[in-house]
Automatic annotation (TrEMBL):
This is Spore coat associated protein CotJA. The lineage of its organism: Bacteria, Bacillati, Bacillota, Bacilli, Bacillales. It comes from Lysinibacillus telephonicus. InterPro entries: Spore_coat_CotJA (IPR020256). It comes from the Bacteria.
Length: 75
């Protein structure tokens, strides 16, 4: 399984007056890694689950993380 989140460490200038953000992140949607939809892809069990996740297929679900609660990468 791959991680949908990517991290990088930007350049931090010694003259920047603001507090630096040492590690920045962004998310990549799962459909970027799935060329074609394979046949028989599992679906959510109920329409309510699918509506709550915004997609019929769990493999295409990508949550929006809370930046303040975000996952920290290994340094």
């Amino acid at each position: 399984m791959f991680s949908q989140f990517r991290y990088w460490k930007p350049y931090i200038s010694p003259f920047d007056p603001c507090k630096p953000i040492r590690v920045k992140s962004y998310s990549t949607p799962p459909q970027l890694f799935m060329g074609f939809q394979p046949p028989g892809l599992p679906q959510f069990q109920t329409p309510h689950q699918a509506l709550m996740h915004g997609t019929l297929w769990p493999a295409l679900f990508s949550p929006y993380p809370d930046p303040k609660k975000g996952v920290k990468p290994n340094d």
